[in-house]
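Re: the multi-chain job from yesterday

Posting the exact lines I submitted so nobody has to dig through the queue logs.
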Amino acid sequence: MTNTVKLERARINLSQQDLAEKVKVSRQTIHSIESGKFMPSYILAIKIARVLSIPVEELFVVEQGD
Amino acid sequence: MIKKSTHSVGLLQLTGYIILCSSIIALFFTDRWAIGSLPIWKYFGALNTMNISVRNLVLFALNIGMAIIIKAEEKNTDERGVVIQNYSAKWTFRFAVFFAVMMGLIINTNWSFLIYAAVVQAYYLILFKVCMYRDSALVYMDEAQIEIYSKKIIKNFRITFFSQLIITSGIASYFSTFQHNAGAYNLSLLIGLAICILTYTIYTHWKS
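And the result, structure tokens for all chains:
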């Protein structure tokens, strides 16, 4: 699974800390999600998508091998 | 899961650290505070009848302090922290079983369960903190991936592991021969083993 959180966050000029505060997680968690290490829960994915104003399936893309 | 970075969590953590540090300092003076030597002990008559030593009381406080720190760490976390908690708990359980088995095998004399509990709690706390702050990739791997990874790094381990084992055995031999204390040999072997495990745990989880 890949995600475009970093790109979308940069698009609206939002820092990792700002996004973390908006979705009520730590900055490290956002960093882990962006680097592709940590797969967020369904609820957190929706929350992030809402803050970034983008559909969740566009933000988190399931690849063929997954 | 919501991150609860509140004042109360900070206070809880501080309390835990104060109890932990005080207990560690107090451990050095427990011999002087034997039950009955201080006037205050007369108010704790039940402890006298139960034959609970001051050292055990201090170790009990140390365990409580550590438990409070763990509780505070777990409160102040989000869903990534929960994943790390589960991972740490799994590996701490494995460590606890292995350590108990080795203790049963190596140690012939009575061994305090309070020390064992403190060692296990310390292992959990260290593993949790290292994984949390280094964001170790191992946490997110499944068993098959961990196996592949461990095969890769086993070569690096071999030399350092054997050198540590030789040093540990040397120290243990010194205690048993020159200090004329055969029991110390087994104990130093066990401590050496625990230090080896701890070193490799930190080493493997340090790479983010």
